[in-house]
């Protein structure tokens, strides 16, 4: 059995991390694997040595493509064509993506909401749920980092890591933070926008300040710090280890890697209910923000026919997010209880555990 895997596993973003982890899971199945990196973003590639790039076999049985549906290729020289997609919205009929997905033999997704949607729209297609995986050993063996002067050790530190796009719920996070705390509270919000230019988030902050009204005044505003320098894997781990509570109020259904990694470090994330991330991070090991289905009215979209108002997203409720922030800060007993429940999650999403699931999926009937 030989597999050709194509995916963005050298990209430093969420998509790249998920693709890299999936490739490592496939390698635990002990089948022959050759990998080829796919670049669909303008980020500089991650400098990693992937041994699967240097293997070559006479014949390949399965082609696994982790990509956007518009780039899927159905190649009849393979016995099975599998597409892996991180679908962030549902109700995508107008985009033409369903047609491209239907060309493949099988589809893997990381959200049961997306799985159920695609299964209903493509009843003759095999749609499988594959949970995101984590490198558990890197978490267990992480060394204590040097204390950053930016991160105040005397404050409770909420943090976000990602891009300041609408779909990531940054506006809701900032407003909820201002609503929940004042300068008298020993809190700090760290917003990490790796590699993002200053002007990309300055407008966002002004809009949040305007919506928050008199909550934003220098004398009463709780501390916020923005970091936009690129982060390598060790710097990312350092932030996890030095902060207290990860916040990810995303609108999207695709399961996210960074909140799961934060949970692995015991940072009891706050995530949006009803999303793929909340299928793994439950109220037993995290805080869930109340949310509701809403049409997608995001201004920043990657393509003209994607993220339109015909699609559905999961919108976090600001008041609920505010309650989650307050409870995470004030209730140490509950926070410790959630943290103690993380071990069961880590066992469920290790490379080896997810690899066991993949063994059945990559077989040729």
Description:
The mean pLDDT is 90. The protein has helices at residues 14-27, 97-102, 112-121, 136-140, 170-180, 199-212, 233-242, 257-264, 277-280, 318-330, 332-340, 342-348, 351-361; strands at residues 2-7, 32-37, 62-66, 80-84, 106-109, 126-129, 156-161, 187-192, 223-227, 245-248, 270-272, 287-289, 291-295, 312-316. It has 13 helices and 14 strands. With 365 residues, it is α/β, with parallel strands linked by helices. Helix 8 links the parallel strand 10 and strand 11.
Key terms for this structure?
33% helix, six-stranded parallel β-sheet, 365 residues, globular
Q: State the distance separating the first and last CA atoms.
A: 12 Å
Structural class: alpha/beta
Q: How would you characterize the largest beta sheet?
A: 6 strands, parallel
Strand residue percentage: 15-25%
DSSP E strands, number = 14
Kindly state the mean pLDDT as a whole number? 90
Count of helix runs: 13
| Overall form | globular
Rg calc: 21 Å
- Strand order across the biggest sheet? 2-1-3-4-5-6
Query: From N to C, what is the helix and strand string?
Result: EHEEEHEHEHEHEHEHEHEHEEEHHHH
Low-pLDDT parts are: none
Helix amount: 25-40%
